[in-house]
Amino acid sequence: MGKIKREHFRITGTQYYQDNFVEELGEYNYDYDETASALKEAYYDGDKIYQYDFLNLKAELVPEPDNEYDPNAVAVLANGIKVGHVKKGSCTRVKNLLKSPDFVGIEIEITGGKYKAIYEDDNGKLRVEREQSPYFVDIDILTRDNSVPDPVPSITPEVVPKPLIKEDVQVKKDIKDVLRDRLRLLATAAVFLIVIIIVSLIVS
Length: 204
Prior knowledge:
There is one protein chain. The protein has four helices and nine strands. It has helices at residues 18-25, 36-42, 91-99, 166-203; strands at 3-10, 27-28, 48-50, 52-53, 59-64, 73-78, 81-85, 103-120, 126-145. 14% of the residues are buried. It is elongated, with a radius of gyration of 42 Å. With 204 residues, it is α+β, with helices and mostly antiparallel strands. The termini are far apart. It folds into two domains: 3-145, no CATH class; 163-204. The protein has a four-stranded antiparallel β-sheet with strand order 1-9-8-3, sandwiched between helices. A three-stranded antiparallel β-sheet has the order 5-6-7.
């Protein structure tokens, strides 16, 4: 299996559906009600604390051939709730990705609405300001990127015999020394026996 490739799309027309999807999908973020001092203790410069979070969303893309404005339109649903449409110029690309044998899935993210912004002022102190932004819906379509080769599988190395350690070498040397000593002893005994035989012959 190749690596996963993402293609990102910003969804349009969210303003026509936001009242419905905020009510149906939004989860109230109780941190939004915290005091400024509490937020400054828990968050950092640049953080945004939105009034609503949108979690655990399952995306679905539905072609709309009967759409009166664009028969090529593709509606975007989150947990079964319509949240907008794929941009007109991206519909064909999105449909091709959905039909691709390499299609893996869709990820969706909804952000926006009222929020409290944490920022650092000119004196280096954290400030909290109330702000508001439009709601944004973004999707990522995931496909397998088969142009990227799979990593080369690891090869189990051959078992290499364990090298002789010093103790093994020493044992072999000791055995050779014992055999050499025994041969010397046998040679000495043989010489001594020959001397006795010769002496016995001379005396007799």
